[in-house]
Amino acid sequence: MSYSFEDLTEGLSASIEKTVTEQDVQAFAQVTGDTNPVHLDADYAATTSFEKPIAHGMLTAGFISAAIGTQLPGPGCIYLEQTLKFRAPVFIGATVTTTVTVKELNERRRRAVIETVCTVEGKKVVTGEATIMIP
User: What is an annotated GO biological process for this record, any one (predicted)?
Assistant: First the structure.
């Protein structure tokens, strides 16, 4: 899906779903170099408040980029800014639903402010706001 600026309206939303796998977490660690053992070592994670490995917060935030770049506004849009609040851990095997909703439009600058929410079983795990330029 791809929207032109003129197609966008406040309140318009789109969602994607992704189940986080151990392979996703391993690949993210390899690509980024973030080898924090809370993500990769079950024995270490067992000693933390999470009790088992958690996905990288930025991996989950990456699902926001996927929703914006493929669904709303879609291909060709340019990410300018993103705020994030990590509200709860995401465990391997969890299905993350990412919803992006047009909050505000700036016609003169062809920009949209997008509310970004990731949930697992209805519980918010990451929230934020993105500013996107639409070509």
Answer: fatty acid biosynthetic process
